[in-house]
């Protein structure tokens, strides 16, 4: 998850573009509008939660994206092939 998150962060500075990037890489498809919105909201909330829990500012971005990647790794779509 850490390496995927690092790759996402290096791809662009925009969270919505990063979400599009990770869905394309993990699922070989675009995120639906609902998935995109939910993922961007998740990242925003995760960053705030990390800041509130005094995580070092330089680690907040990476940790938020690692959390999203871990949640995407748990989806059936990632785990199983049809």
Summarize the structure in words.
There is one protein chain. This protein is an all-alpha fold and 82 residues long. The chain is 78% helix and 0% strand. It is built from five helices and no strands. It has helices at 2-11, 15-27, 33-52, 57-73, 76-79. Helix 3 (33-52) crosses helix 4. The longest helix is centred in the middle third of the chain and has 20 residues, at 33-52. The protein is globular and about 40 Å long. 17% of the residues are buried.
Can you tag this structure with a few keywords?
82 residues; mainly alpha; 5 helices
Question: Any chance you could write out the topology, listing elements then pairs?
Answer:
Elements: H1 2-11, H2 15-27, H3 33-52, H4 57-73, H5 76-79
Helix pairs in contact: 1-2, 1-4, 2-3, 3-4
How would a textbook summarize the main sheet? none
Which runs of at least 5 residues are low in confidence (pLDDT < 50)? none
Strand content: under 5%
Alpha carbon gyration radius: 12 Å
Query: Count the helices. How many?
Result: 5
Shape: globular
Number of strands: 0
Distance between the termini: 23 Å
Q: Helix/strand/pairing class, anyone? A: mainly alpha
Average pLDDT metric: 94
Roughly how much helix do the residues carry, as a percent range?
A: over 70%
Order of helices and strands: HHHHH
């Amino acid at each position: 998850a850490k390496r995927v998150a690092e790759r996402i962060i290096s791809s662009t500075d925009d969270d919505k573009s990063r979400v599009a990037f990770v869905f394309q890489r993990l699922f070989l498809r675009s995120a639906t509008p609902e998935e995109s919105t939910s993922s961007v909201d998740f990242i925003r909330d995760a960053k705030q939660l990390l800041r509130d829990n005094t995580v070092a500012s330089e680690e907040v971005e990476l940790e938020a994206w690692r959390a999203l990647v871990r949640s995407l790794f748990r989806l059936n779509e990632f785990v199983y092939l049809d």
